[in-house]
Request: fold
Amino acid sequence: MRPLKINDRFLQELPADPERTQSRRQVKEACYSYATPRIPENPTLVHTSKEAAELIGLTEVDLTSKDFLDIFSGTKKIEGTDPYAMCYGGHQFGHWAGQLGDGRAINIGEVEHEGKTWALQLKGSGETPYSRTADGLAVLRSSVREHLCSEAMYHLGVPTTRSLSLVATGDQVMRDMMYDGNAAYEKGAVVCRMAPAFIRFGNFEILASRGDVENLRKLADFTIKHFYPEIKLGTTDAYIEFIREVSRRTLAMIMDWQRVGFVHGVMNTDNMSILGLTIDYGPYGWLEGYEPGWTPNTTDRQNKRYQYGQQAQMAHWNLYHLGNALYPLVEAAEPLEAVLDEFRQNYAIEYPAMMRRKLGLALIEKEDWHLIQQLEETLQLTETDMTIFFRLLGSFSTKKISDNKSYFLELIQPAFYQLDELTPEVKQKWNDWATQYTHRLSRETRTAEARHAAMNAANPKYVLRNYMAQLAIDDANQGNYDLIEELYQLLKQPYAEQPDAEKWFAKRPEWARHKVGCSMLSCSS
Ligand code: AMP
Ligand code: MG
Reply:
């Protein structure tokens, strides 16, 4: 494998924990601790992303080399740098949880290619000072999900961390998958994630919670200098501008989640990237039936804090806590409050804008909110597949609807899970909505073809449905990785028609309705 060019800014510019052991502890006055990945028993390469590899200058030949497997399984370190785990805290499910940190993630280096720097991070490669009571490991099941979804989200155009490689470690890992007392051994795995940085809201919160303003300022200045270079450092305004930009990026990310039907599942502040990237793919899920109250995370079953319809509000809550953490650098509440208000105001603009894209509306009309609200209500009357509905809506023809009264319901019928739920009242609601939509479209100036193309670019045809990932996991656990590759290839072009892949443009099969891993996921991973 060709050498990687190191540019380890995080290590060079931020304070390290002087203690070198991996004993679990509270780490103060430091942004990270050195940590050594665990050497796996019998590592084998399961899958790689050629697209992610290209970003750091690696080609297919490199990916099949022994060096590659050695480095990305954690067996060998990258020359010229040292691995480390980051210190962060977080608010988990609404409560301050204190120090969390990279309990099972180890950064193995920051590498530079074509003027861009990428942090490489192994997830699942053993204990660090932040492992608390857990083992620092990850299972194949959750690693397949992280690897496939990271790359799928990237190709959907959603800001995200990337996934370079998926390695089976050959180790056995004990997990109680549903937290019901049925622990069992599962196959271990390590994913290598890539991002410009893995800094989270929680990295700032932990320093603020300890009154360590000096290091808080160092971390904020570091983040601004490298990732928000348009902001001029030197005054308190810089930190206000910083949180404003973080807020904008976060809102843009959430709007993409809503657009494609992605539910993160654990939007704790330790899982919020300071770069506005989707990070930490755990018990996430994809909406099948359109249901704002849905969350895949069984740990959140009671409160449904992180349900689909509440993701923007939860991001706002998290930004409030980021604002609190940055307060010592600003020492004025008003400008921080103004940023949070701005998030709300922008949401009120961005959400309808995103829905207009999904509906193929290029013009902005005041009354659009009504059309959108009616649609959201009607979608919830029966179980209606979100992805299929919007994709089919792209071919809606205002001509056909005037000739044939049942045209609209025929068009969207494949999106309904239970046809017998379509009572005359429900049908009437849909037809009323279609009439409104027809009127609204008549005021648009684009051709139907142009509208269709624009809608197809906003409404994916293929997403990583929960059961699809589960099928790939079931095969992978048997040692067959073909479906991982098939889904990876499919999800590289989620907006394109792929005639050979029509079977994946289908509703969730009935067997998956209540199956663990398909509709229910815990944080156990
Ligand atoms: P999560 O909610 O999965 O993002 O994780 C919350 C915290 O728990 C983070 O500090 C993780 O590093 C830590 N964590 C999760 N799983 C493990 C594990 N198996 N071993 C050590 N730490 C873990
Ligand atoms: Mg996390």
About this structure: Residues 252 and 467 are 27 Å apart (CA to CA).
